Every structure is written in structure tokens, then in C-alpha cells.
Amino acid sequence: MSNRFGKLAWDSERPPQPKREMPMALHRERSDGPYHSYRWTRLSRAFRVSHPICAECERAGRIVPSTCVDHIVPWPICEDFFDEKNLQALCDRCNMEKGNRDKKRIARWKRIHQKEDKQ
């Protein structure tokens, strides 16, 4: 689009940007439904306020602000999604690392329970 003065600043084409690949360690699929509920949003926000330091970093002797709330026993393995005794506040890095470890644990749990359901 242009006007009588020529091209406008926001009309100029942006040079193509190279696509940035996310390292595999940081790639995760979108989380399940309960994580997007109003109840979880309220609970996780309040939990982070009362637990401002990343639990994993604190155990390692580092002081890093928490940015998210994690299930110690991962969902769907835990019985109560909203059980505060099963929650810990983590920084983004620790949450991503633990989430990737939990994927293996969840896959193993699903395989075992699928075998039980078939029997």
C-alpha cells in the first residue's frame, strides 16, 4: 500500500528471516487440557507466589526464580491433578529437562496399563 508520498514504513517488505530450529531438548508438544483450565491457572500462579525459587536449582545450591509449576509424579500417572503435595515450582530449564525425563516414564506407564487393560 502506498499513499501520495510513496511507500509507508509498515509497507516495506521485511527480508526473509532464517528459520530458527529449537534444540530437541527444548521441543515439547502442547500440554493436555487440565493445564489450560482456570482452576490450574489460579493454583499454579498462587503456588509460584508461595514458592518463588526453583526447587531443582535450590537442591543443587543455586538460587533461580521459579517460572512454572510441575507435577512431581507426572500427569497422567498421579491420581489428583490438583494435589498441591504433588507440585513443585521450577525454572523453565529444569521444567523442560524434567518434562523430557517424564515423557519416558509416562510412556512406560502407559505401556504397562495398556497390557493390563487387554488382559
Q: What is the compact description of this entry?
A:
This protein has about 120 residues and is α+β, with helices and mostly antiparallel strands. It has helices spanning about 40-50, 55-60, 90-119, and strands spanning about 1-5, 5, 70, 85-90. The chain contains 3 helices and 4 strands, in the order E-E-H-H-E-E-H.
Could you characterize the architecture of this molecule?
The protein is built from three helices and four strands, in the order ββααββα. The chain has 119 residues and is α+β, with helices and mostly antiparallel strands. The protein has one domain. The strands form two sheets. Strands 1-2 form a two-stranded antiparallel ribbon. The chain has a two-stranded antiparallel sheet with strand order 3-4. A hairpin with a 2-residue loop joins strand 1 (2-3) and strand 2 (6-7). It is extended, with a radius of gyration of 21 Å. The mean pLDDT is 81.
Taking the alpha carbons of the first and last residues, their distance comes to 66 Å
Largest sheet: 2 strands, antiparallel
Helix-strand makeup class: alpha+beta
Q: What's the overall average pLDDT, rounded?
A: 81
Any idea how many domains?
Answer: 1
Percent strand: 5-15%
Strand neighbour order, sheet with most strands: 1-2
Instruction: Report helical residue fraction.
Output: 25-40%
H-E string: EEHHEEH
Low-confidence stretches: none
Overall shape: extended
Rg from alpha-carbon coordinates: 21 Å
List the SSEs and their pairings:
Layout lengths: L1 E2 L2 E2 L30 H13 L4 H5 L8 E4 L15 E4 L1 H27 L1
Antiparallel strand pairs: 1-2, 3-4
